[in-house]
Structure formats: C-alpha cells, structure tokens
C-alpha cells in the first residue's frame, strides 16, 4: 500500500459558535466541541485512508479557554500517527474574535480511528510520509501514545 503525506489529508473546519450550542454559562457546550473535533479528525482520517473510519479512542482532550458565542471556531485536524489499520489525528481548536481579529487556542485532543470495511472489519491504511521534523516528532510520540493506550486496554 502506498504512503501519504500529512499535508495531503490536513483539514480545517470553520464555523460560528452558535447560541443553540451554549451551556448554562453562555459559552459553548464542551460536548459539542468534542463532537465537532471528532468530525474534523474523522475527515482527515478518511482523507488519509480514502475509506470509512470509526472512532476508537479520544485522548487528552483539553478545555483551555471558554468559547464565546459569535466567535469563529477553527478546527485544524491532521494525521499524527498511523498503525496498520488505525489512524491517530491531532485536532487543535482556535477561537477567533471576528470583531478584533484576535485568535486564541481553546482546545486540543488526539482522536484515534480505525478504517473498516462494509462489515465493520478493520482494513489496512496507507503509511505516513513524514516531511518535517515536527511531523516526525509527533509520529514518534503518537507511537508511544498508542502503545500506552493498548497496554491500558489490556
Ligand atoms: C474499532 C473496532 C472496529 C476495532 O475492532 P477490534 O476487534 O478491536 O480490532 P483490532 O483488535 O484488530 O484493532 C484494530 C485497530 O484498532 C486499534 N485499537 C483497538 N482498540 C484500541 C484502543 N482502545 N485504543 C487505540 N487503538 C485501538 C488496534 O491497535 C488496531 O490498530 P492497528 O491495526 O493500527 O494496530 C471496534 O472496536 C469497533 O467497532 N468499535 C466501535 C466503534 C464505534 O462505534 N465508534 C463510534 C462511532 S464512529
């Protein structure tokens, strides 16, 4: 199977933080941020695999700052590590104040997907062609994260 670069599947999803997704504090509900981040990660994983994927693990989700209504949210997702059938993506969320133009990082997480066939059985994915020292470092760290997850699974 051929390899693919990180940039070939990188994705950015941009949308408004809408009032219907507000929590009791008037900021964006954390669960909705997780859903959107999962979708952005899945897009990058599907682009890499050119196959259906399912989420198998959500790792290290951070909520560093609240997301205010009316701000523009950017979900940046890229493949950080691949195994034989699994794909780890790194998703970073940035919130942009549309009036001032200031942008701040609000959330980040690693999402692990598995490419599956029509029967839900795992299928192989392309390997990852690493082009920068940052991509190499993230891949090596991803290998360790995945080993840790599988050890914890037992
Ligand atoms: C994902 C799923 C198909 C994996 O099935 P499985 O029988 O565990 O398959 P395998 O043991 O062959 O593992 C397949 C891959 O998943 C990885 N994996 C399995 N459990 C994992 C976990 N807890 N964390 C990280 N990776 C995991 C394995 O390491 C393997 O990757 P590799 O081929 O790159 O080494 C199955 O667990 C499933 O269908 N889960 C439900 C998914 C779902 O409904 N998601 C929400 C909706 S999208």
Features of the shown structure:
154 residues; alpha+beta; Thiol Ester Dehydrase, Chain A; 5-stranded antiparallel beta sheet; two-stranded parallel ribbon; 2 helices; 27% helix; 38% strand; globular; binds coenzyme A
Structural overview:
The protein has 154 residues and is of the alpha+beta class. It is 27% helix and 38% strand. The protein has two helices and seven strands. The chain has helices at 30-49, 133-153, and strands spanning 3-5, 11-16, 53-63, 72-82, 86-96, 103-115, 127-129. The chain has a five-stranded antiparallel beta sheet. Strands 1-7 form a two-stranded parallel sheet. The mean pLDDT is 97. Bound molecules: coenzyme A. Coenzyme A (COA) binds at residues 54-57, 83-86, 112, 114, 116, 120, 122, 149-150, 153.
Question: How would you summarize this macromolecular structure in one to three sentences?
Answer:
The chain is α+β, with helices and mostly antiparallel strands and about 150 residues long. It has helices at about 30-50, 135-154, and strands at about 5, 10-15, 55-65, 70-80, 85-95, 105-115, 125-130. The protein has a single domain, classed as Roll (Thiol Ester Dehydrase, Chain A), CATH 3.10.129.10.
């Amino acid at each position: 199977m051929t390899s693919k670069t990180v940039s070939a599947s990188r994705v950015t999803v941009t949308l408004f933080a809408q009032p219907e997704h507000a929590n009791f504090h008037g900021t964006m509900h954390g669960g909705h941020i997780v859903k959107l981040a999962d979708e952005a990660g899945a897009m990058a994983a599907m682009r890499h695999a050119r196959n259906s994927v399912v989420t198998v693990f959500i790792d290290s989700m951070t909520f560093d700052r609240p997301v205010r209504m009316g701000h523009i949210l950017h979900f940046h997702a890229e493949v950080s590590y691949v195994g034989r059938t699994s794909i780890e993506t790194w998703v970073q969320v940035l919130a942009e104040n549309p009036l001032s133009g200031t942008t701040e990082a609000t959330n980040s997480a690693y999402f692990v997907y598995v490419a599956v066939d029509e029967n839900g059985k795992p299928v192989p994915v392309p390997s990852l062609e690493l082009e920068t020292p940052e991509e190499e470092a993230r891949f090596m760290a991803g290998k360790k994260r995945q080993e840790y997850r599988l050890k914890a699974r037992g």
